[in-house]
Amino acid sequence: MDRLHFFTPVRIARGQGYPVEEVDSVSEAMVFLRKWPTGRRGPVYQCALNCCAAAMSGKMSAEEARKAFVGFARITRLLDDDMALPLGGAPMDNVYALRR
């Protein structure tokens, strides 16, 4: 496996009527981030972009960059619901309470 590929893709959901996208690698995350509207680029965006750039230059692992990209997707409410679920078998009745 290429060192810039994610172990697990990041699933992006833009909303109803749009297909769920899978971002599989650092380079795909960079393409996604570069297309992000300029007026909506805040500190979480900049962190994700910096981490992806660091991974591309070998200064950070792809999984560390993935974590930053997932954080960006979560903050912007683009992270697919399946990815936002807690790990470890947490009860489902608490899932939506955690996301509010």
From TrEMBL:
Pfam families reported for this sequence: DUF982
The protein's name: DUF982 domain-containing protein
Organism in which the protein naturally occurs: Mesorhizobium plurifarium
